Amino acid sequence: MARKWIGYIGVGSLMCAALGCGILYTRQARLQQTISDKVLRFHVLANSDSEADQNLKLAVRDAVGSYMQEKLADVENLEECELVVRQSLGEIEDAAAETIAENGYDYDVTAELEHTSFPVKNYGSYTFPAGDYEALRIVIGEGNGHNWWCVMYPNMCFSDSMYEVVDKEAGEKLREVLTTEEYEKVLAEGDYQVRMKYFSWLNPYLEKLAEN
């Protein structure tokens, strides 16, 4: 009898875990659909995961970020941001290529404004759900290394903290673009991710729930 009850408890735990993960995926999918057309992401892919290539990725990030900070200073909406980025792709590639050469490498580099599939990404206190987003995407060499990303519009990339910390002003910019509900969910998803990480082994079986 004890084994039977243990079995019931085990099955019940699995069902609760599946339900929790299913809720997580569904929440993320719905949130992603509502915010993806309100933001533009900035995405830099390193040639490889070697320490040198990862450092080069950050140098390219800084060079492009410094260039685009001034270019985007006066944009007032997403459409203006996209236009400025699209018109600046050649200069962005030049800035990246110059930085690569200055660091002693001859990697090719491309800059494109395109839709890209992202996994779940944490940025300071904010969690952006997995899905398709438009991004300024810079690929260095083979593009096989870990990537770096931030939100280019609204401006959460360029601040005194140099990318690594989302300051209050950047958070307010995001609040202005999203609805109150969307903004609160982007904050809340971070806590929810932590609570659900223990059930991550169920992910391969539940990813399709987000499509429903």
From TrEMBL:
Pfam families with a match to the protein in the record: Spore_II_R (PF09551)
InterPro entries in the cross-refs: Spore_II_R
PROSITE patterns for this protein: PROKAR_LIPOPROTEIN
Protein name: Stage II sporulation protein R
Biological source species: Roseburia inulinivorans DSM 16841
